[in-house]
Amino acid sequence: MPTTTSISNWGNYPKLEAIVNSFKSIKELKYLLKTNNNFIARGNGRCYGDSSLHSHILSTTKYNNILAFDSTKGLITCQAGVSFDELIHFLVPKGFFLPVTPGTKFITVGGAVASDIHGKNHHQDGSFGRHIVVMDVLIAAGEVVTCSNQINSELFNATCGGMGLTGIILQVTFSLKRISSYEIDQVSIKAHNLEEVFKLFEEYKNATYSVAWIDCLQSGESLGRSILMVGEHSDNIQRNKFRSERKFSIPFNFPSWVLNKWSIKIFNFLFYHKLIKKKVRSRVSLDQFFYPLDFIGRWNKMYGKNGFVQYQFVLPLVQSKEGLKKILTAIGNSGSGSFLAVLKLFGEQDSGLISFPMKGYTLALDFPMRKGLFEFLDKLDALVLEHGGRIYLTKDARMKKEIFWDSYQRAKEFEKVVLHYNPNLNFRSSQSDRLAITKL
Ligand SMILES: Cc1cc2nc3c(=O)[nH]c(=O)nc-3n(C[C@H](O)[C@H](O)[C@H](O)COP(=O)(O)OP(=O)(O)OC[C@H]3O[C@@H](n4cnc5c(N)ncnc54)[C@H](O)[C@@H]3O)c2cc1C
Q1: Are strands 248-249 and 296-297 parallel, antiparallel or unpaired?
Q2: Which of 269, 322, 383, 386 is the most buried (most CB within 10 A)?
């Protein structure tokens, strides 16, 4: 009898009982697929909710070889289970970096494709899918299909951002960014409120990377008080050895009282005021700039054993200012919400059918699990929808299906392609069932 394991992703909500199998070869994978009807691929479980959860999980983490590297063309080919952390160790000393990276390096290449991840450079470089040259996907019929923007583009566009519903991503070839240093030249600028941070984003729109940390508990004149950080790869040629940093891990779940309105207010106050001057220039490591949260291993335990929800939405550019004001006001009034929220500017939308980014502003923040949270988030969903926006699936654990179908304009097209490559809905997640993408 196969044994089940209790499993959850980064938000520690929901927790499911599942059979987890891993594979090292396509032969093993095909064998596993014959043993059951329902599967979902899972990389490192860094999505927050239930996107990579179901009763049968195919863990890709042992399918993790780097297959080819071309330094002349700046291309790499690797199996889907290779992590960004492994890639950084391999690439950075050779003078290359990832074309797009999220706020943690502990994700897999398969997860990056399936969520069509974005980084602090979306306004310049788009999402991860834009940098894929070609990839192989194992579809439900047991065939390996090669796809790209030119070959089998329908499958390609449904797989980038498709949350694992078209099949198992096996290997991916993608282009890299050339760098000459292990450091980033960073400028941090204080913004007193939302108006000011929008102006700063506009002023720095040609920067390669930009992100603002917002204090969500401010109101009135200070609504949207934040620090914008922009960065460029330094051209300071590096001679010392590349080192990746990790500081400490949280060993246990914090009790729920540790995080309350007052502890969060104090943290946010200190964060804003630690920047003494209006504008500060510094040179920081890649880890400090891209992955500040990775310095604290298992920081998700801070939210206690009941877990938390990360809420990330995007609003179209013309609606961003008004929509963000309303949403930040609602969050401020509720007194809940996380330490800091992250605001980024997105550029043009890429070709993924249900990829999250669209031209506009995106905000992400954590909400510790509490009574009444889902009802409150339903109200925020309504505001997001009213302003033409949508919720990021890889962070979602609770959205109602109507919100998904009303906000993802190409969802019907996506459903059609899924039904073509996954006709019996063998690849399905707890999320896709909840959102009625894979109707039960
Ligand atoms: C601290 C933190 C910061 C983050 N910051 C960002 C950010 O800035 N930008 C951003 O875009 N995201 C961000 N994320 C989210 C994260 O990048 C995505 O959830 C990513 O998909 C996680 O990859 P994973 O390997 O852990 O995949 P999982 O979490 O295991 O799975 C995510 C999805 O990918 C699918 N999948 C995984 N592997 C395969 C495969 N081989 N074939 C088919 N489907 C597959 C799963 O079915 C699931 O739908 C952040 C997450 C954390 C924890």
Answers
A1: parallel
A2: 383
CA of 262 to the centre of ligand 1 (A): 32
* 44 ligand 1 Cβ < 6 A: yes
Side-chain half-sphere of 406: how many Cα atoms within 13 Å? 14
User: Which residue is it, tokens 């940390």?
Assistant: 213
Residue 342 pairs in a beta bridge with: 213, 364
Structure tokens at 347: 């550029």
pTM over 0.85: yes
Residues counted in the chain: 440
Write down all domains in the chain, each with its CATH number in brackets. Answer: 66-179 (3.30.465.10), 183-399 (3.40.462.10)
Give the nearest ligand 1 atom to 106 CA. 26
Find residue 314's DSSP bridge partners. Answer: 362, 390
Ligand 1 within 6 A of 9 CB?
A: yes
pLDDT of residue 240: 65
Across the strands, what pairs with 75?
Answer: 70, 175
Q: How far apart are the first and last CA of the chain?
A: 26
Q: 346-383 pLDDT, tens per residue?
A: 999 999 999 999 999 999 999 999 999 999 999 999 99
**Closest ligand 1 atom, CA of 112?**
21
pLDDT of the residue at 340: 74
CA of 33 to the centre of ligand 1 (A): 22
Q: For the chain, what is the mean pLDDT?
A: 93
Task: Pull the structure tokens for residue 369.
Answer: 């699990």
How far is it, in rounded angstroms, from Cα 209 to Cα 143? 39
- Name residues whose C-beta falls within 8 Å of residue 342's C-beta, 6 or more positions apart in sequence: 103, 211, 212, 213, 214, 363, 364, 365
Structure tokens of 103? 């706020």
Residue 169: closest CA among 440, 435, 427, 436: 427
pLDDT of residue 248 exceeding 70, the answer is no
For the record, the structure tokens of 216 come out as 């969500």
Q: What is the 3-state secondary structure (H, E, C) of 207-259?
A: CCEEEEEECCCCCHHHCCCEEEEEEEECCCCCCCCCCCCCCEECCCCCCHHHC
